[in-house]
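Re-run with default settings, no changes from the original entry. Doing this only to confirm the output is reproducible before filing.
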Amino acid sequence: MAKKKKKKNRAPKQEGGSQDSPRESKKVEAKAGKTAVLKKRTSANWVLLSPAVAGMALAAYMSYTGWVGAELAFCGEGGGCDLVQQSRWGTFLGIPTAMLGFGLYLALAWVALRVRNPARHFTFAWMLSLTGVAYSAYLTVISQTEIEATCAYCLGSFGILLVILIIVAFQRPPGLAAFNWLTWGSQTAIVAIALVGGMHFYYSGYVVSATGPEDPYLKGLAIHLNDSGAIFYGAYW
């Protein structure tokens, strides 16, 4: 006798489309959730823009005084800020180092105003602020160990960049795919450290001999004697 084939019970098809597996449904829901979280910004990032503008104002003032050779307010000749600005770390490729800071703050302000894609907004702002913090930390260490002077304006800029980095970290879009702070932080830190290392290589005098080691106090004394019109008299035989 022929064996009767057992009929398999099939779930009735839902009207309006095929039935998805639970795994596929979860993927669709997750994808929909990410799309909802990563929607474009409708306005500027004012929380980021405010400290960026403050940093621009500070860097612009330091750039101006460094370019024309004027004294910073509340910092007389021979003071900590004057020694830092007159050192070889006070310029880069012939322009005041503060102008690099102004360009950095300007880029951050542009991101805050114009970049509305959340992923790009976070990436650009993080990389800029992290690089700025790394470079400011490097200059702070140099001012204490090599120049042996403290610049209040430089520390103020360092503080602004730290605030911006913290703001960017807290504003990270929660829907970024496969995001891990440890991986992200280590990868971006490598880029920042490489950039600072390149700057240190330049200041060490291997690229341009004029940027080699110098005594900031002797340089400050020479500038003071030159500005005061002192004349050196000597004799030899």
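The first strand starts at residue 91 and ends at 92. The longest helix spans residues 118-147.
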